[in-house]
# Entry
Amino acid sequence: MQFLIARLFQAAIVMLCVAFIGFLVFQYIGDPVLALVGQETTVAERDALRESLGLNDPIIVQYFRYVANAIQGDFGISYSFNREVSEMIADRLPATIELVLLSGVLSLLLAVPAGIYTGIKRKGGIAQTIMALSVIGVSVPSFLLGILLILVYSVWLNWLPSFGRGDVASVLGFETSLFTLDGLRHALMPAAVLCLFQLGVILRLIRAEMLEVLRTDYIRFAWARGLPARHVYLGHALKNTLVPVVTAIGLQLSSLFAFSIITERVFQWPGMGSLLLHAIGQSDIPLLAAYLIFVGLIFTISNLLVDAIYVLIDPRIRHGAR
# Structure
């Protein structure tokens, strides 16, 4: 418990630092008053608006006000859409989450067994082929891979739609495309593009850890005891590779939110990535600052979950924390 409390305290400090960076972006890149008023506005009216917005207050007061508003989900008004930034994020976030979840599940379902197999049968032809394909998955840029998939499966074969989110269904009050056939057909190609990079990284890490663990003395002792291969590989070897693998999986799945920007653009997926590109093109500072805080929150939460899993899978961490 002390271990997790310490991690929560560290996470709070990290989020305060991220919020400070977002505050600096909001405060010093562009003038929010000029973005909110027209050219015909007088200097006196601009000064009155600046005073009403609290922009004349000391910096430290503005920062803590910004943090308090961010905790309540208030990130200001979008300059280009003239809407609440929190409302726009709420509209776009479900599409990005479902794309990230689908690609993360696909990468784990493929990477874990493939990594175990290539670690056990490292000199086999199938294992060598899998490793070669993993290198291609890591090396090929996501936008190029997306265009190739569209060319093959949408233009030549006409199997999958090339853009959009498709039909959505309401599940527990949330609209998602993962529970409709048309939505899954739309999500399959962008999820595959996001999956391939993560798949290569996680697969190679699992393989490397398996190769390292299989050389240890306790694995030789397990073989000497006559344990079945299934128990040796899954019960002993895989279990002792989980700590670094869980770390990599947590970071990789978090980075999917960053990698999704180009993928969403290629497939015209209506998520956070396309919203960020619009904010950059229009210099929409409130949107940029909110996206920065959102990504920092995603990485912080994923690291907390990874730390919690550490305590469960590695008794040394639990006893050391005590």
In short: Residues 90-315 form a domain with the MetI-like fold fold (CATH 1.10.3720.10). The mean pLDDT is 83.
